[in-house]
Amino acid sequence: MYSKQELSQGLTTRIVGNKIFVFETIDSTNACARTLGDIDTPEGAVVFADFQTNGRGRLGRMWISEPESNLLFSVLLRPAVKAEMAGLLTLYASAAVARAIEHCVGESVECKWPNDLLLHGKKFCGILLENSFQPSGLGYAIVGVGINVNQRTLPAEITGKATSLARETGKEYDRKQVLQAVLTEMDALYESAGKGDFSRVVSEWTKRCLMFGKGVKVQQHDHTIEGTALRLNNDGGLIISSSGGELAVYAGDVTLVS
Ligand code: BTN
Question: How are the residues of the chain apportioned to helix, strand and coil, as percentages rounded to the nearest 5?
């Protein structure tokens, strides 16, 4: 297990990772980071765990990860962002993780709306953004990141769609190096995103998104939308052109249709 000194050693970030909390086992790093947010911990704090007993995924799903193989962490942020723009923070984290992983692996990473990162077309990273809103706007945001790094065996029901860096490249990665690369990219991109300027985030994210101009299906809880993915709107929603005209979607599972 890593110590917080080891994870911080050599890290030269300004905000992201200014304090690192390390757990061998925790219920969820996002839950812990929310507690830190509620007790006024300064932004930039990172909660890192080797194993989660109740790892949370998007849409109420679980995030399951083998002990000591992958990266499971959450970052507490207090960006100066209007509440209605908070969804862009998922794209901010995706763009930063994509840049870091490309650097570590030497291959292109794909961003899939809203929160997935893919290598060779399969998901190796998911991001779970949890926001705390105050009457005055966004109080804090928790950016939870799960990256499958060295795990070789995945549950049979997801091997068609999910993967790890090691499975795709045949190499093992130093998890500390990968974590530090991600925190460094998050810190760099936060310089503008933390002030509500998402222009760089949107351009970094968009150039890695392969679904624009293609037919997609968005599965929402009780219905499905089909159309062509056109672009992002100003607050990070996905604009789809469907038979009823253009509409923006903010949640759901997107798949390409041929
Ligand atoms: C998804 O793809 O559904 C999002 C998965 C996010 C998982 C990470 S692991 C670290 C952090 N803590 C959690 O409980 N979830 C996020």
Answer: 30, 35, 40
